Amino acid sequence: DCFQNATNSFYYDVGHCPVKTCAGQQDNGIRCQDAVDNCCGISKTEEREIQCSGYTLPTKVATECSCQRCTETQSIVRGRVSASDNGEPMRFGHVYMGNRRVSMTGYKGTFTLHVPQDTERLVLTFVDRLQKFVNTTKVLPFNKKGSAVFHEIKMLRWKEPITLEAMETNIIPLGDMAGEDPVAELEIPSKSFYRQNGEPYTGKVKASVTFLDPRNISTATAAQSDLNFINDEGDIFPLRTYGMFSVDFTDEATSESLNVGKVKVHLDSTQVKMPEHLPMMKLWSLNPGTGLWEEEGDFKFESQRRNRREDRTFLVGNMEIRERRLFNLDVPESRRCFIKVRAYRSQRFLPSEQMQGVVVSVINLEPRTGFSSNPRAWGRFDSVITGPNGACLPAFCDDQSPDAYSAYVLASLAGEELEAVESSPKFNPNAIGVPQPYLNKLKYRRTDHEDPQVKKTAFQISMAKPRPNSAEESNGPIYAFENLQACEEVPPSAAHFRFYQIEGDRYDYNTVPFNEDDPMSWTEDYLAWWPKPMEFRACYIKVKIMGPLEVNVRSRNMGGTHRQTVGKLYGIRDVKSTRDRDQPNVSAACLEFKCSGMLYDQDRVDRTLVKVIPQGSCHRVSVNSMLHEYLVNHLPLPVNNDTSEYTMLAPLDPLGHNYGIYTVTDQDPRTAKEIALGRCFDGTSDGSSRVMKSNVGVALTFNCIERQKPSVAQNRCQ
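The line above is the sequence of Cartilage intermediate layer protein 1; the predicted structure tokens follow.
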């Protein structure tokens, strides 16, 4: 209800300073650089009034920029480490960056680490101290501007060990897909094992060989590293995998690790469905320090007779196993494109509601001949993070055959999967974000296209490389590899694929503008919602609604006790209540309010004056007794004569679920809000839920009746 005639839109220009470093003032010291980093930032603001329907909103507009000390930021990576088969957490495991331990997983497999400032490529190795899971090296994208990114880390279990005789030739199959031949075999000649000191070993060998079979689509997320190597020109280049295997050979008696001098790898050529890949096939091993693959050797063709009737051609390679490393059967693949993807806060798909920090992943699939929706195997797994203009996701593509490769794309924020736009029963190119006829060529299908019971959190497309002379294919959503810059800079009006958050409508308004995805945009101001950068405190109150409809609930947050802010607006928060799954006519809302506490100058506290206002015909029926007692004992106590709302001076203490208040402090604002919101939904001070539990941990309860529906004539007048 704040349409601006001046801009003919719902936008108001509040100004901005470029996010870049600058040279500070010279002093008497002889130095080549500043002692502290300086950044361009807002040095002067002006208060303006935004005209709305029947009221005004205050805002602060940037009018001057200057070179000042940079706002301190920190890039944070959080995640959860679990088994790829059943989600069992890796408890109390170690996280390494190179040879240095940087974090440890908790009981639920969660971890947190701060990324060192000069990091360009974050390579982490996850080590299970209980030896249930294969050590896993991942290259994780992170937000270099600061703020937190959440990653789900999937790990393979070690295969049950088998016993080998060191003095005999041993054959170990790689791949155990039901009804399929193995992808390859390891052949270990007799007398090949030796101890760490070089002494030959002749006893029994305990062998565990774990194979990541790309014919099993569900294993793609457990793929290690980002499947890249450095080519002869020194450039990072992608690989397409035909399988990865981890080997662990130990002395059965003493558990001492054993080396193997000569190992042959027999790769079944019938498993390689792209004939052009056969002569390029190589054997690789992973360097866990760099996360890059290093060439171990080539393959050569060899014909072998399996039985009287069947001659088969195998690719045979030789290798030596000197340490517990991960090996890979791969080919370099140069046919690459980029997919333009954006993530939104709702199904309105407004450019202003784009979300940053979303992890978007793609699994490159090799379709089965004639059945593009039923892939034969996956070949590569990539992840990128959305920025202010979405993300460009690398994927294999082909200009000769549109169905040579397909891509399976999914997105998540803080571990929560986002939803893709539907393809059935409605197929709406405007909603999907890609016009016809290109959309038909790409064969867009959401995962529930054929079965409504399947999750709606991913989509699959054919990777048809855009034709350079085709006008309808020149504006996205697929871009040739050499057009990365165009992909990164296109406006939201250009074709792109979309994900959105499933949560109900919410609206945030701050008097002092701040982009939660960019901590550098923080401004020193008494009315800043977050008064202290790097210490973001999120507060929520749980409101229960008794009535047939979901209701929008608003918090209006003003200065309460500080002389600089009293009576002035910090901001507004609106959220729609979430219906209870088990009870009819009951819903609840977890509503953010501005926490009380010190303002930016750290001089004195302000107890925020918070009004909680359900937007409807509502009547307050109860207040949590513990919350009421706390507020009575911490005066002043605002007057609450109007039963259609509730007013309080927000508590200074971080109260818990017994009061219906949820408070979390973190170095990243989004993380603080996500954790507090999860606790509020759950109604506990240490749990988390995406399902609203409306009977526990409630602060306020309102009765809301359904308003009488206006007549047809009234509707026409409106």
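Note on the example: Residues 669-682 form the longest helix (14 residues). Residues 2 and 55 are 9 Å apart (CA to CA).
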